[in-house]
C-alpha cells in the first residue's frame, strides 16, 4: 500500500472517530446533563426531524436558494478581493489611497450592513448578494494583499531582466507567488460567506437556511433548528473541501 493511500485512510479514520466521539458526547449531554429534549434534543431526535424534513422537501426547498446566494456573493466578493488585494499589495499609490478605507471597513460586520443593503437594494436577492460579497471581499482582500506584498523582489527583478512587461509580471510572477495566500483567503471567504448568508436571510427572506432557522425558532422546534445548523455546517465543510482540494492541485509546483 502506497504512503498516499495510507494517509488517505488515516484521514478518513480520524474523521470517522471525531464524528463518532462528537455524537457520543452530544448524546450524553442531551440525556444526562441537560435532559430536556425541548431545550437540547439528542442526535436520535434530530435525525428523525431530518428524515421528515428531507421527505417533505423542506430542506431542499431552502438549501438551493442559500447555495445560490452564497455562490453569487462569493464569486463577486472573491473576484473583487483578489483584484484589490493584488493592486494594493503591489501599487504603492493604491495602497496609500485604498488601504486605510478598507482597514476601516474590516471591523464592520456583515450583519450591520443588512439594513443599509435593504435600503439600497430592497429585500430581494440583490441585498443578500451585496452583504455576502462585502464580507467575502474584505476577507479575500486582506489575504491577497499580504501575499502580493510579500512577493520577493528578486522574482520581479529576474522577470524584468528577461524583458517581461509590467502587466505580465502581475500574471506570471505576482499571482503565482501570492497564490498560497489567495487560496487561504478563498477558504476563509467561503466560511464568511455562510456566516453572512445567515445574517442576510434572518431579515427579509422567504426561503433559505436562515429563513428555515428563523421559522423553526418561531415554532420552538429545536430539533429542526439543529437540522438547519448541521445542514449549514455540512455545506460549509463541503465548499471548504472543494476549495482546499483545488488549491492543493494548483499549488503542486510549490512543493516541487
UniProtKB/TrEMBL annotation:
PROSITE patterns in UniProt: ABC_TM1
Localization terms from the record: Cell membrane
Keyword Transmembrane (UniProt): yes
Membrane topology type: Multi-pass membrane protein
Sequence ranges assigned to domain ABC transmembrane type-1 in this UniProt record: 63-247
CDD domains in the cross-refs: TM_PBP2
Repeat among keywords: no
Pfam family, any one: BPD_transp_1
Membrane-spanning residues: 12-35, 70-92, 104-123, 219-243
GO biological process, one term: transmembrane transport
GO cellular component: a single term: plasma membrane
Chief place of localization: membrane
This protein's UniProt keywords: Cell membrane, Membrane, Transmembrane, Transmembrane helix, Transport
Family the UniProt entry places it in: Belongs to the binding-protein-dependent transport system permease family.
Protein name in the entry: ABC transporter, membrane subunit
Biological source species: Corynebacterium glyciniphilum AJ 3170
Organism taxonomic ancestry: Bacteria, Bacillati, Actinomycetota, Actinomycetes, Mycobacteriales
Amino acid at each position: 500500500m502506497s504512503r498516499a493511500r495510507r494517509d488517505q485512510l488515516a484521514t478518513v479514520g480520524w474523521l470517522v472517530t471525531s464524528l463518532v466521539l462528537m455524537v457520543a458526547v452530544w448524546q450524553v449531554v442531551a440525556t444526562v446533563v441537560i435532559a430536556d429534549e425541548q431545550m437540547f434534543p439528542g442526535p436520535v431526535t434530530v435525525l428523525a426531524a431530518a428524515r421528515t424534513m428531507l421527505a417533505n422537501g423542506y430542506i431542499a426547498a431552502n438549501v438551493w436558494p442559500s447555495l445560490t446566494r452564497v455562490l453569487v456573493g462569493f464569486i463577486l466578493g472573491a473576484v473583487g478581493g483578489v483584484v484589490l488585494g493584488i493592486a494594493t499589495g503591489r501599487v504603492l499609490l493604491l495602497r496609500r489611497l485604498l488601504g486605510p478605507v478598507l482597514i476601516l471597513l474590516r471591523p464592520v460586520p456583515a450583519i450591520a450592513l443588512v439594513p443599509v443593503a435593504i435600503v439600497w437594494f430592497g429585500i430581494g436577492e440583490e441585498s443578500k448578494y451585496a452583504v455576502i460579497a462585502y464580507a467575502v471581499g474584505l476577507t479575500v482582500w486582506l489575504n491577497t494583499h499580504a501575499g502580493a506584498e510579500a512577493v520577493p523582489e528578486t522574482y520581479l527583478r529576474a522577470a524584468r531582466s528577461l524583458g517581461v512587461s509590467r502587466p505580465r509580471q502581475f500574471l506570471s510572477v505576482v499571482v503565482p507567488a501570492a497564490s498560497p495566500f489567495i487560496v487561504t483567503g478563498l477558504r476563509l471567504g467561503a466560511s464568511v460567506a455562510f456566516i453572512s448568508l445567515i445574517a442576510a436571510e434572518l431579515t427579509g427572506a422567504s426561503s433559505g437556511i436562515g429563513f428555515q432557522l428563523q421559522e423553526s425558532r418561531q415554532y420552538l422546534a429545536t430539533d429542526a433548528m439543529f437540522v438547519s445548523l448541521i445542514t449549514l455546517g455540512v455545506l460549509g465543510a463541503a465548499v471548504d473541501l472543494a476549495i482546499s482540494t483545488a488549491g492543493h492541485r494548483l499549488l503542486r509546483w510549490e512543493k516541487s
